[in-house]
């Protein structure tokens, strides 16, 4: 049965097919890089702790032989303590620098050219509305041209929603009374899942949309078509 | 179920009916059992006593009861999520939202916080050689406020009005424009009442630790659990009033049409700031005491002193301080601007440094020790790798740009369960197994304890490990449904099985408690070959165990007195200490607040007045009547 097939397939595909780690934009790739970088640095920490943990618990566990031993008093060890204070600081600097760079980059949402496409994204309980510059309006379906910069203007008419296409780029909140912007350039044609990530009431789980990235020409035709 | 009453159509969902039925069947059975076993006098003794050990035991008892309630919520959620497009019972949409709201709120406010306060109550005074807490009456008041707040919140479900806005209560969803009905008023008043109790507990702990230590027990000689308690109390004193203010503003928005979080002048982001200025320190409020418990237990069961004591104390203080200034890392997707985002990102990363110091110090405490694998130590050992995994995902989350992908996904769900269950819940179990002889005078079965530990730990990792991947694959949190195409079925399926395993392990814990109490064997004194003062007295400790105060001249004094075969010297005189006299006033006060809260929740003014008068009159009664008066008069007569 097809459904069970999906169930069995997933563990083999995971790791290479996780949506957020397979982004279709530069910005998304930067974020995936940060995820991978922090994961690598942190796995080093986990490995060190686990090795010491296993070593000590195996070596020093109570046995018949040492049952009555009284371990020697030990205040501490300055050298060791300096090592495990400075080493994490160095690791964190390695993570902090790219974090700062990419955070500033992703926050720069001014269109870099006149040609950028502007889309108003309006969240409301429980559907998304996408308004294009020529007045075209769609619900729960976002169509974008490939390789063209797009600036989303996020807004909400009721509660807070969060605009998230996992394969495109990380999320931004759509907050009533505050316009948030998100700039991104999709570079791969295809159909992608979009979701609301901020809990927004009864049908939050169903507040999904579809994002289609199509070739430029196809997009122009679609945009010109009557609604 | 639907029926017409008085011309109104009334709809009662089947889960509420099931709740009422089990309550109506269960309650008489419990009452009958108590009567048959003649437990009423014991219950009354505990309910009115201001003795720190009894109040602490009550805190722990009710926290564990609430833990089961919130745990059942979790199991129901996991059952709904076990397959894609599942339709389990009534738990879709509204009902599912109520489940995760009550699960989160109860676990944080009515399980994690009070269970640690309970353990502090039991252990801290004895660890510092005090006879009782500085304000025993206030202590009982604090407990009753917690119980009342918890009960108000608990009852919401029975009126088919469980809160449904998430435990973070983000505005404007939490305002009356979007969530009508009494549901979320239960959240406001449940938290407001119990939060006040938590503040009282913090004041009590601070005063006790600063004023009532045994002679010679300088702060630099204090065990680490009292140290963690001291820092935690300061955090509570800073954080909880902010929550109280936020709740009050929300109450005005909901009940009286104010617009703090909505409209022209208000703004929804204000709520997020207020909530997280409270909410982030809260994370450390429930983590730091856990660190203290583990420090004591690891040192005890390795038969070694704590490695790097000074660094341990300094890092507790540093974590507490940094914990106060990282709240906006919960708000990286709000769009606060890159300067704010990077500041809070770097500040959050910094917390990893003192936390890392603590982890390595725990490991090196075990090095060259003799590690005895008893149940409390197993929980401490399970804590180290589990918590480190939660800690490193925390560092990953602090990277602001990457957090745009993590935020509000199952990755975050996995992260905070790793840190909270890994530290607080494992520490609570460890503490319960460790201090049970002090609480009750009996020792829990070690073999069952080990079963409990292994099943709980395996179930825990099964439940939460794969949620990291589900989150990275695009599963948002707080959804009751997903599709086959999402590719997260396997993760969720295994996760649900793990949750059932955790639930099963809790039944073993229950069985352990039941078995221990049926057995009349008393625990011997000093059952773990302890190091700190609480083991130098009989278990369970009598009231005022340190009438002649011990004179302390080094850390782990009790251990050294055993090694060197010389008893701890004591003072000639005893110190005037607070005494425990039974009192019903706190019960009366909390009854007043209970009525007051329901008056506000349903908007009945007569009930507000009644409850208000009852609560205020407690102050007047208290001003003219002190239950300790007769005892003090007797003492004065004797002295003359």
From TrEMBL, chain A:
Signal sequence, renumbered to the chain: none
Keywords, comma-separated and alphabetical: Copper, Electron transport, Membrane, Metal-binding, Respiratory chain, Translocase, Transmembrane, Transmembrane helix, Transport
Membrane topology annotation: Multi-pass membrane protein
Enzyme class: translocase
MF GO annotations: copper ion binding; cytochrome-c oxidase activity; oxidoreductase activity
Transmembrane segments: 34-58, 79-104
Catalytic reactions of this protein: 4 Fe(II)-[cytochrome c] + O2 + 8 H(+)(in) = 4 Fe(III)-[cytochrome c] + 2 H2O + 4 H(+)(out)
Domain Cytochrome oxidase subunit II transmembrane region profile: 12-110
InterPro entries in the cross-refs: CcO_II, CcO_II-like_C, Copper_CuA, Cupredoxin, Cyt_c_oxidase_su2, Cyt_c_oxidase_su2_TM_dom, Cyt_c_oxidase_su2_TM_sf
Statement: the UniProt record of this protein carries the keyword Electron transport: yes
EC number(s) from the headed UniProt entry: 7.1.1.9
Pfam families: COX2, COX2_TM
Cofactor note text: Binds a copper A center.
Localization annotation: Cell membrane; Membrane
Stretches assigned to the Cytochrome oxidase subunit II copper A binding domain: 114-225
Any one GO CC term of the record: plasma membrane
Described purpose of this protein according to its UniProt entry: Subunits I and II form the functional core of the enzyme complex. Electrons originating in cytochrome c are transferred via heme a and Cu(A) to the binuclear center formed by heme a3 and Cu(B).
Family assignment from sequence similarity: Belongs to the cytochrome c oxidase subunit 2 family.
Protein name: Cytochrome c oxidase subunit 2
UniProt lineage: Bacteria, Bacillati, Bacillota, Bacilli, Bacillales
TrEMBL record, chain B:
Coiled coil: none
Pathway in which this enzyme or protein is active: Energy metabolism; oxidative phosphorylation
Gene3D superfamilies tied to this protein: Cytochrome c oxidase-like, subunit I domain
Annotated keywords: Cell membrane, Copper, Electron transport, Heme, Iron, Membrane, Metal-binding, Respiratory chain, Translocase, Transmembrane, Transmembrane helix, Transport
GO molecular function, one term: heme binding
Membrane topology: Multi-pass membrane protein
InterPro entries the UniProt entry points to: Cyt_c_oxase-like_su1_dom (IPR023616), Cyt_c_oxase-like_su1_sf (IPR036927), Cyt_C_Oxase_1 (IPR000883), Cyt_c_Oxase_su1_BS (IPR023615)
Domain of life: Bacteria
Signal sequence bounds: none
Domain Cytochrome oxidase subunit I profile: 38-553
TM region positions: 16-34, 55-72, 106-126, 138-159, 186-212, 224-250, 270-294, 306-330, 342-364, 376-396, 416-436, 448-469, 489-514, 584-602
Main subcellular location of this protein, as a coarse class: membrane
Protein's GO biological process: aerobic respiration; electron transport coupled proton transport; respiratory electron transport chain
GO CC, alphabetical: plasma membrane
PANTHER family (UniProt xref): CYTOCHROME C OXIDASE SUBUNIT 1 (PTHR10422:SF44)
Family named by the database record: Belongs to the heme-copper respiratory oxidase family.
Protein name: Cytochrome c oxidase subunit 1
């Amino acid at each position: 049965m097809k459904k069970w097939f999906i169930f069995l397939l997933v563990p083999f595909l995971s790791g290479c097919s996780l949506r957020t780690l397979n982004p279709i934009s530069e910005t998304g790739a930067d974020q995936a890089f940060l995820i991978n970088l922090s994961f690598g640095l942190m796995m080093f920490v986990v490995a060190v702790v686990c090795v010491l943990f296993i070593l000590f618990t195996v070596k020093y566990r109570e046995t018949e032989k040492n049952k009555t031993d009284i371990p020697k008093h030990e205040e501490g060890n300055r050298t060791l303590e300096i090592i495990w204070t400075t080493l994490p600081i160095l690791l964190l600097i390695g993570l902090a620098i790219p974090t700062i760079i990419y955070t500033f980059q992703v926050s720069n949402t001014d269109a870099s050219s006149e040609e950028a496409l502007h889309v108003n994204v309006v969240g409301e309980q429980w559907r998304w509305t996408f308004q294009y510059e020529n007045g075209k309006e769609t619900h729960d379906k976002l169509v974008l041209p490939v390789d063209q910069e797009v600036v989303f203007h996020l807004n909400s008419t009721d509660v807070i929603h969060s605009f998230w296409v996992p394969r495109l780029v990380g999320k931004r909140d759509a907050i009533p009374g505050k316009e948030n912007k998100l700039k991104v350039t999709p570079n791969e044609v295809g159909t992608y899942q979009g979701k609301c990530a901020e809990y927004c009431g009864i049908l939050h789980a169903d507040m999904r949309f579809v994002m289609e990235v199509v070739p430029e020409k196809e997009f122009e035709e679609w945009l010109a078509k009557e609604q | 179920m639907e029926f017409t009453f008085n011309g109104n159509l009334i709809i009662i969902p089947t889960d509420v009916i099931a709740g009422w039925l089990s309550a109506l069947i269960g309650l008489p059975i419990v009452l009958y059992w108590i009567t048959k076993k003649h437990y009423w006098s014991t219950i009354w003794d505990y309910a009115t006593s201001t003795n720190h050990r009894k109040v602490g035991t009550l805190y722990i008892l009710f926290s564990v009861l609430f833990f089961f309630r919130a745990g059942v919520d979790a199991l129901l959620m996991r059952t709904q999520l076990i397959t894609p497009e599942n339709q389990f019972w009534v738990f879709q949409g509204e009902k599912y939202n109520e489940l995760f709201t009550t699960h989160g709120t109860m676990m944080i406010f009515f399980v994690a916080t009070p269970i640690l306060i309970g353990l502090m109550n039991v252990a801290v005074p004895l660890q510092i050689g005090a006879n009782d807490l500085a304000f025993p009456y206030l202590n009982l008041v604090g407990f009753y406020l917690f119980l009342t707040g918890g009960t108000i919140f608990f009852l919401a479900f029975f009126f088919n009005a469980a809160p449904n806005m998430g435990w973070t209560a983000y505005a404007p969803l939490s305002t009356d424009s979007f969530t009508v009905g009494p549901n979320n008023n239960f959240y406001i008043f449940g938290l407001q009442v119990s939060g006040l109790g938590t503040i009282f507990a913090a004041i009590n702990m601070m005063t006790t630790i600063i004023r009532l230590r045994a002679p010679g027990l300088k702060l630099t000689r204090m065990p680490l659990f009292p140290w963690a308690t001291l820092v935690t109390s300061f955090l509570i004193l800073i954080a909880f009033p902010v929550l109280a203010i936020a709740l009050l503003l929300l109450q005005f928005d909901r009940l009286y049409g104010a617009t703090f979080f909505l409209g022209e002048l208000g703004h929804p982001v204000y709520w997020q700031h207020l909530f997280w200025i409270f909410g982030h320190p809260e994370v450390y409020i429930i983590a730091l005491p856990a660190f203290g418990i583990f420090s004591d237990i690891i040192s005890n069961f390795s038969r070694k002193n704590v490695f790097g004591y000074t660094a341990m104390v300094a890092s507790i203080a540093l974590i507490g301080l940094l914990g106060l200034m990282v709240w906006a890392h919960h708000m990286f997707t709000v769009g606060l601007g890159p300067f704010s985002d990077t500041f809070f990102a770097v500040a959050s990363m910094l917390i990893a440094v003192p936390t890392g110091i603590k982890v390595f110090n725990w490991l090196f405490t075990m090095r060259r020790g003799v590690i005895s694998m008893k149940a409390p130590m197993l929980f401490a050992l399970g804590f180290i790798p589990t918590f480190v995994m939660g800690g490193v995902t925390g560092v990953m989350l602090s990277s602001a740009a990457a957090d745009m992908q993590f935020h509000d996904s199952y990755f975050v769900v996995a992260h905070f369960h790793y840190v909270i269950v890994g530290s607080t819940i494992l520490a609570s179990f460890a503490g319960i197994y460790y201090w049970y002889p002090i609480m009750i005078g009996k020792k829990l079965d070690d073999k069952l304890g080990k079963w409990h530990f292994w099943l709980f730990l395996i179930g825990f990792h099964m439940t939460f490990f794969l949620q990291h991947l589900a989150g990275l694959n695009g599963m948002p949190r707080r959804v009751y449904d997903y599709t086959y195409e999402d590719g997260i079925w396997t993760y969720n399926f295994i996760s649900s099985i793990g949750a059932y395993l955790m639930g099963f392990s809790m039944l073993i814990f229950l069985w352990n408690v039941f078995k221990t109490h049926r057995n009349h064997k008393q625990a011997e004194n000093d059952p773990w070959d302890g190091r700190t003062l609480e083991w130098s007295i009989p278990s369970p400790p009598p009231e005022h165990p340190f009438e002649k105060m011990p004179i302390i001249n080094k850390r782990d004094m009790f251990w050294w007195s055993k090694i060197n075969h010389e008893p701890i010297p004591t003072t000639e005189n005893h110190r005037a200490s607070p005494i425990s006299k039974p009192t019903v006033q706190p019960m009366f006060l909390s009854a007043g607040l209970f009525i007051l809260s329901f008056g506000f929740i349903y908007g009945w003014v007569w009930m507000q007045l009644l409850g208000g008068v009852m609560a205020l009159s407690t102050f007047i009664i208290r001003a003219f009547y002190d239950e300790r008066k007769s005892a003090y008069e007797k003492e004065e007569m004797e002295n003359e």
